[in-house]
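Re: your question from the hallway

Yes, I did run it. Sequences:
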Amino acid sequence: MSPVLEVSNLHKSFGGIAAVRGVSFEVREGEILGIIGPNGSGKSTLFNCVLGQLLPNDGEVFIDGRQTTGMRPCDLNRLGVSRTFQLLQVFPQLSVRDNLILAGQEHRGSMFSRLIGRADAGLGEAADRMVGFFQLSHLADEQAGALSYGQQKLLDAAMAFMAGPRLALLDEPAGGVNLTMLKHLRERLQTYHAERKATFVVIEHQMEFVMALCTRVLVLAEGRIIAEGAPHDIRSNPVVIEAYLGH
Amino acid sequence: MNRVGTAAVVGAAILAAAVPFSLKPFGIFLISMWAVLTIAAIGLNLTLGYAGQVSLAQGAFVGIGAYTVALLTQAGYPFALAFVAAGGLCFMIGGILGYPALRVQHHYLAFVTLAFTTLVFLVLRNEEWLTNGIYGINGIARPTFFGWSTRSALNFYFFSFGTLAVLSMTTWWMLRSPWGRAFVALRENPIRALSLGVDTRRYTLMAFAIGSSLGGLSGGLYAPLVQFIDPGSFALGMSFNLLLMVIVGGSGYFFGPFVGALVAVLLPEWTRIAQGYYLIIYAALVMVMMAFCPSGILGLIDRALKAVSRSGQVTPAPGAKGIGP
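Structure:
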């Protein structure tokens, strides 16, 4: 069986700066792969190349064995690939429920059928279930912009799961989130993963979060993979300690 | 819409239907102009207010619509056909004008659309064989439907108001559909929207096409309302005036264009009592209004209602409780 995600010899440069240099890896179905590395190691650039936000200079990306290099993000999303961003990316003027409906509506019918169909695209109940799952029910009708930072992070994650993705790429989901919220977020992700057998790739700096959530960890430094393995092996890997953990 | 909002809309509709009976012909002309230009402003509000695509071309689309109806009706085609053709033509041209928006945004896009307005003005002025150039087209007839003539000012007002009602309800329904949500997503965060499967290219083009087609339909009513059109009516001034209507009323608020058009059409007339100074006073009032309520009149009302609602609440404000920090 082909891996859910395969990245082969990916290169991306900005002018004279090589952000990603020949990165190759695979992600199997149901796996939670963590990607760690110091700032500027190319993690987010790698994500953006995989997800069609950036066009790589070289290399290929395959989703379920299908070549998707350079495919537009909206087309990738319809293939079952969703993401969160490093910085908060909710729609502040829309309600929490509308944010979630929006996150799933483009998977329902054609553009024309969405125009003449139901206002909630038939996703009202699914959105209510999702706000319940992420314990945001009491805020469902509030504008997303009125939520606290941590609540918006939860909403951001909930939006990534609204369309029932086969592969979710989460860029620093724990960034700026307090410890209570972090535990809650991790539990939600673990529950979702267990229930749906979804495949995750997670970029994160919060090491405890990565170690508790991920089944395998890949370490990037200066655009290259310098280590790969189980979380406890990575924690004690001298190359990683030297390049990233710094102790 | 809540119960208070519904009551306000019904009340305003009854008022709009009753008020012309107490007005003289010039007053009826003014509220007819309000109804006609509100349609164009609704279109611009869709493109700019909802989808976030800056356009200074709406006046040009009103011109294209007006000339389409004037030329076709004078060539003997029925008004209904000419009216639909005006909307259809502007839909197509608007869709094409949307393409630059896929590459440039904000003030760059404003300049692209401004150039388009200038281009349309030059075509209307220079292509005399088609448009009669600077002499314009006069004697544009008002339509008759199944024996009901709109020749009188009152009948034409009701025809314009009815058309406004139908088009605004259609727009309301569209904005309540998933399309409306996608347009707002396009305005607020196109990169995130794209990552959620929203085909931002298609929605951008549709926002331009539909908004422009409403401009064309407005022009289709403008021509028989004034019965004489010339290129100067559809130069940059018209586009800026429509932009003013959207901004003053409240960009992104559905009823913003209704309020904004009322201000833009009636305020200059009310300030005429100041004779030669009336445009200066009008400009000063608009500047003061924008300085104190940049989100427009409806934005100001919205803020006031929210403040009242918050002060009356016993439970904490949204976001103050829950699992967040």
